[in-house]
């Protein structure tokens, strides 16, 4: 094995190790979101649960594919590396398609989220969900305490348990609508940054894998 092949082999192993770790990060992020995002799961009728399950599946796939790449590089297996490169190429195309779709329909997604937030706060049966959101995000009403049109507000607007008094001068100033949107956007930016990082590494890995696979086949 020449110097270039040896360098590519260990570079492929290192890149796949990073991908495997990023896959575990996605899984951990999804599990934590699913556990601690109860009020938002209730507000979105379980849609967050579906999203986190999808992300967990993606994280597991990334980890397994990266593990296959590590094994193929270390064992210098033409078959394993070719399989790995084909699977990874397919995954890259799917990721690209999902990214384009999300970008094209981003306005519809935002409109749907706005509609769900408004409906939740205006629904008298969703008082418990609203209380949890106001407590967790330290906000009050859709756009601030004045949204309630009263000086006597829900106790959650002051971070207090039910039954305790909360006056408008003591309440959280910020509205929940903007805070929910900010939370969603920051989470999406984090996931987007991770996805871009993984995609760049995957592209490099595909190139290395095909080169090494051809090299190993000749030996």
UniProtKB/TrEMBL annotation:
Tell me which domain of life the UniProt entry assigns to the organism this sequence originates from: Eukaryota
Q: What is its main location?
A: membrane
UniProt cross-references to CDD domains, sorted A to Z: tetraspanin_LEL
Q: How does it sit in the membrane?
A: Multi-pass membrane protein
InterPro entries (UniProt xref): Tetraspanin/Peripherin, Tetraspanin_animals, Tetraspanin_CS, Tetraspanin_EC2_sf
Q: Which PROSITE patterns match?
A: TM4_1
Q: Name one GO cellular component term.
A: plasma membrane
Instruction: Provide the alphabetized UniProt keywords.
Output: Disulfide bond, Membrane, Transmembrane, Transmembrane helix
Disulphide bonds in the chain: 139-176, 140-157
In terms of SUPFAM superfamilies, this protein maps to: Tetraspanin (SSF48652)
- Report the subcellular localization: Membrane
Membrane-spanning ranges: 12-36, 48-74, 81-105, 190-212
Question: Which family, according to the similarity comment?
Answer: Belongs to the tetraspanin (TM4SF) family.
The entry's protein name is Tetraspanin
> What is the species listed in this Swiss-Prot or TrEMBL entry?
Panstrongylus lignarius
């Amino acid at each position: 094995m020449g110097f270039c092949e040896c360098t590519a082999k260990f570079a492929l192993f290192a890149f796949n190790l990073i991908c495997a770790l990023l896959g575990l990060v996605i899984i951990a992020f999804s599990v934590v979101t699913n556990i601690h995002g109860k009020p938002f799961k209730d507000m979105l009728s379980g849609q967050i649960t579906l999203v986190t399950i999808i992300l967990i599946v993606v994280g597991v796939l990334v980890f397994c594919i990266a593990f296959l790449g590590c094994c193929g590089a270390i064992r210098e297996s033409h078959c394993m590396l070719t399989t790995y490169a084909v699977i990874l190429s397919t995954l890259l195309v799917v990721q690209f398609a999902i990214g384009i779709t999300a970008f094209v329909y981003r306005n519809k997604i935002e409109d749907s989220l706005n509609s769900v937030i408004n409906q939740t706060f205006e629904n008298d049966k969703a008082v418990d969900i609203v209380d949890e959101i106001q407590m967790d995000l330290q906000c009050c009403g859709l756009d601030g305490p004045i949204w309630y049109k009263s000086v006597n507000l829900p106790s959650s607007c002051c971070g207090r348990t039910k039954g305790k008094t909360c006056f408008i001068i003591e309440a959280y100033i910020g509205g929940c609508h903007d805070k929910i949107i900010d939370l969603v956007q920051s989470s999406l930016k984090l996931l987007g940054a991770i996805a871009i990082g993984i995609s760049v590494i995957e592209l490099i890995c595909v190139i290395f894998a095909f080169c090494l696979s051809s090299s190993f086949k000749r030996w």
